[in-house]
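Private note to self, pasted from the team thread so I don't lose it. Backbone tokens:
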């Protein structure tokens, strides 16, 4: 960053660190101990699909790699979601597969198309929470919904307190955007 950028208040965008995803399994242990929420075995990657043969080939290869554990869907905002299913006790494997999807897209030049990845958790009391990784920010945040278009802010803030120090958390709450209807949530 140059002195002109500093003078004008501009900053360099944060580079995504996909390896931060590998901190999720240990963070999940802390989250479970503090809140009782356990992994569901569901995780998703969201991206804006690109036109062309290169992207179609990459998407086909990713689906072939994951086999019948992956489902594709599109949301109302034009994003494609790949939902990956694993056993709830195989969180490390799930994270590895989510990392592989993200890395494949990034390595093929489609990194700017990536939106987020999420891993779902649930409690015996019915509470549900997703730990969301924002690709363009390189940070995580908790998202919890209790009903259609209604957030459980108390659970989100509790999870933030628990996950602080475990994961690089998004400091700006305004960037904790809702992922209503995300597959796996």
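Design output:
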């Amino acid at each position: 960053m140059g002195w002109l950028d500093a003078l004008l208040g501009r900053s360099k965008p944060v580079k995504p660190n996909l390896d931060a995803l590998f901190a999720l399994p240990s963070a999940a242990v802390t989250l479970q101990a503090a809140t009782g929420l356990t992994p569901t075995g569901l995780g998703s990657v969201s991206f804006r699909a690109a036109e062309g043969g290169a992207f179609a080939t990459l998407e086909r290869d990713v689906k072939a790699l994951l086999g019948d554990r992956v489902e594709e869907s599109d949301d109302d905002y034009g994003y494609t979601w790949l939902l990956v299913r694993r056993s709830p006790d195989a969180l490390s494997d799930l994270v590895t597969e989510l990392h592989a999807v993200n890395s494949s897209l990034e390595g093929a030049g489609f990194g700017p198309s990536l939106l987020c990845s999420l891993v779902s958790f649930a409690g015996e009391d019915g509470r549900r929470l997703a730990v969301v990784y924002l690709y363009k920010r390189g940070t995580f945040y908790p998202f919890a919904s209790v009903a259609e278009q209604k957030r459980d802010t108390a659970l989100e803030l509790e999870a933030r307190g628990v996950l602080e120090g475990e994961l690089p958390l998004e400091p700006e709450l305004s960037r904790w955007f809702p992922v209503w209807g995300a597959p796996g949530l």
